[in-house]
Amino acid sequence: MSRAKGNAAEDAACEYLTQKGFVIQERNFYSRFGEIDIIALKEGVLHFIEVKSGESYEAAIYNITPNKLSKIIKTSQIYMSKYSLQCDYQFDGLIIVDRTITLIDNITL
Predict the structure, then answer these.
(1) pLDDT over 70 for what percent of the chain?
(2) Kind of pairing, strands 45-54 and 23-30?
(3) Is position 109 within any domain?
(4) Is 83 among the domain residues?
(5) How many alpha carbons lie under 13 Å from residue 56 in its C-beta half-sphere?
(6) How many domains does the chain have?
(7) What is the CATH number of the domain that holds 85?
(8) Which residues pair with 26 in a beta bridge?
(9) pLDDT in tens, 19-42
(10) What 3-state DSSP class applies to 80?
(11) Whole-angstrom distance, CA of residue 98 vs CA of residue 84
């Protein structure tokens, strides 16, 4: 996927999340382990969100691999440490296919 398509997907994701009551804290947070697409807060819970888009739901969701999830978890630890945060948090996936957006809570379960 091109960077332009990725940015468009993340823009749509942020708009969707904002409409659902999330407050975007940061986008594209990088560490030496990897990147977190969106970090958002809702009802006192910090959400680390991986955005994937594709031609089908399956094509997009299967791109959140165990290796990718491991990198997200390590990067989230860096983020929490950097800002000295001690709050509830979770890892979510946000899948975009055409104009349909699906938020998947707790992808680590």
Answers:
(1) 97
(2) unpaired
(3) no
(4) yes
(5) 3
(6) 1
(7) 3.40.1350.10
(8) 39
(9) 999 999 999 999 999 999 999 999
(10) helix
(11) 38
The dihedral through the CA atoms of 97, 70, 29, 24 has a sign that is positive
Q: What angle do CA 26, 27, 32 make, to 5 degrees?
A: 100
For the record, the structure tokens of 97 come out as 């296919």
b/e sequence 46-59, b meaning 16+ C-beta within 10 Å? bbbbbbbbbeeeee
Give phi and psi for 108, each to the nearest 5.
Answer: -85, -10
- Is the entire prediction scored with pTM above 0.85? yes
To 10 degrees, the CA torsion angle through 101, 21, 93, 51?
Answer: 70
Range of the domain at 28: 3-104
Structural domain contains residue 62: yes
Q: In a 3-state reduction of DSSP, which class is residue 64?
A: coil
CA distance 94 to 102: 6
**Alpha-carbon torsion 87, 7, 20, 18, what sign?**
positive
Here the tokens at position 103 are 């938020």
Q: Which residue type does 27 have? A: R
Length of the chain: 109
| Helices then strands, each counted (H, E), the chain | 3, 5
